[in-house]
Amino acid sequence: MHLDHDHSHHGAVSADAHRPDGTRRALRIGLGGPVGSGKTATVAALCRQLRDTLSLAVVTNDIYTREDAEFLLREAVLPPERIRAVETGACPHTAIRDDISANLEAVEELEDAVGPLDLILVESGGDNLTATFSRGLVDAQVFVIDVAGGDDIPRKGGPGVTTADLLVVNKTDLAPHVGSDLDRMARDAAAQRGDLPVAFTSLRSAAGVGPVADWVRARLAEWTAVPAPAPAG
Amino acid sequence: MSRSALLVLADGRFPAGGHAHSGGAEAAVKAGRLTDAAGLEAFCRGRLHTVGLTAAGLAAGAAAGLDPHELDAVADAQNPSPALRAASRRLGRQLMRAARAAWPDPGLDALAAAFPRGAHQPVVLGTAARAAGLGPEDTAHCVAYETVGGPATAVVRLLGLDPYQATAVLARLAPEMDEVAARAATAARQGVDALPAASAPLLDITAEQHAAWPVRLFAS
Ligand SMILES: Nc1nc2c(ncn2[C@@H]2O[C@H](COP(=O)(O)OP(=O)(O)OP(=O)(O)O)[C@@H](O)[C@H]2O)c(=O)[nH]1
Ligand SMILES: [Mg+2]
């Protein structure tokens, strides 16, 4: 994916696929989407599903500093040293797209402190339909919307809905209660996204995150299929 | 000397992490000391002539080729607040990342290797400016501008302040920014011992308090 062949300096300056010692860094997956759609719930469920087989860490980008990180800590989905909160100056989309320096610091510090890691999940604070992650920060991104936010969101499109590597439509359990038409959402999403995948989830049950976990495992298999370089001498 | 390189370095979009910091403005807003454009102007003026001048001197010194290790030690000594020292090193590290991508340079590489946890931000800024072909005077201008530009942007977000008024505040401060930059650059040419050491104790105190808030919008 993103390759920079010069590893002689301390610290990477971009989304270098390798750590300064030459080993492969963790796969980074971003999760964005509107406020309250279930990003943190998805991160928590993914951690519970994957933590026994993978070495994981999470970076949160909150609007009010530490809300999401504190939820994950309370739920004890990972040991505290594997969760970092990045402060975004009221502007998470800036921190995940326009100026990714604090997030790059956070992912590199996590790898230094608790690595080696297989996977780092980077959650953006709830923002708007145009908030997407820089390719300099993450290798793949998930956009999480929910059925209660209105079943016309897939039709409206926007960079998150149309370009995310995975679109998650969450809270399907609520669809009957809010009058959302899941078939219509699926049709509209397909029209906006072409071949890019869509997963419908309900996180009310423990297995609900399954399709997202499967997708993450597939990304990780691709990431590790590229042979790791020999550690630098 | 490249005037255009100065514009690139001083641009608020330069991805060096500054957008998450209010320069003490968030604490001042919360305390009710900063409520409008006049308050912003007074706050920025105070910052400019104290910590702004001091940081501009350090950065101009680095741009002039003074020893960055010595400058970094001076920055530590000038800065009594642990929270601000930590923020400065963190921002220095973030700036280093952007600077090395923008102006690859052995001086930056050496500084990064010597300070893996980050040198103080003004020291990195001066080294980056030197790598970009800028002299002490331009470098000091860059610091003077970011000293007031950061809080102005933050206050627009915090108070919903009219952005035209915020920009007018910056424009009114421009002659004073020039003055501060000239003083800093002149001092830097005379060596480390001549560098200005003006401080703002209230900024130090409120930075310590702010760092302990459970809920805040800005990192400092
Ligand atoms: N009914 C239902 N509620 C859900 C589901 N997933 C999440 N929630 C609830 O929706 C609310 C918001 O979930 P979060 O995971 O905090 O949403 P978020 O996207 O991280 O929100 P922000 O970070 O504030 O933008 C919480 O009360 C969750 O318990 C779901 O599948 N079904
Ligand atoms: Mg959340």
Automatic annotation (TrEMBL), chain A:
Keywords: Chaperone, Cytoplasm, GTP-binding, Nickel insertion, Nucleotide-binding. InterPro entries: CobW/HypB/UreG_nucleotide-bd, P-loop_NTPase, UreG. GO terms for molecular function: GTP binding; GTPase activity; nickel cation binding. Pfam families: cobW (PF02492). Residues 1-20 are annotated as: Disordered. GTP binds at residues 33-40. Residues 29-198 form the CobW/HypB/UreG nucleotide-binding domain. It is found in: Cytoplasm. One of its GO terms (biological process) is urea catabolic process. CDD domains: UreG. Gene3D superfamilies: P-loop containing nucleotide triphosphate hydrolases. One of its GO terms (cellular component) is cytoplasm. The keyword Oxidoreductase does not apply. Belongs to the SIMIBI class G3E GTPase family. UreG subfamily. Facilitates the functional incorporation of the urease nickel metallocenter. This process requires GTP hydrolysis, probably effectuated by UreG. Homodimer. UreD, UreF and UreG form a complex that acts as a GTP-hydrolysis-dependent molecular chaperone, activating the urease apoprotein by helping to assemble the nickel containing metallocenter of UreC. The UreE protein probably delivers the nickel. HAMAP family: UreG. This is Urease accessory protein UreG. It comes from Streptomyces termitum. The gene is ureG.
Automatic annotation (TrEMBL), chain B:
InterPro entries: UreF, UreF_sf. The keyword Transferase does not apply. One of its GO terms (molecular function) is nickel cation binding. It comes from the Bacteria. Required for maturation of urease via the functional incorporation of the urease nickel metallocenter. UreD, UreF and UreG form a complex that acts as a GTP-hydrolysis-dependent molecular chaperone, activating the urease apoprotein by helping to assemble the nickel containing metallocenter of UreC. The UreE protein probably delivers the nickel. This is Urease accessory protein UreF. The gene is ureF.
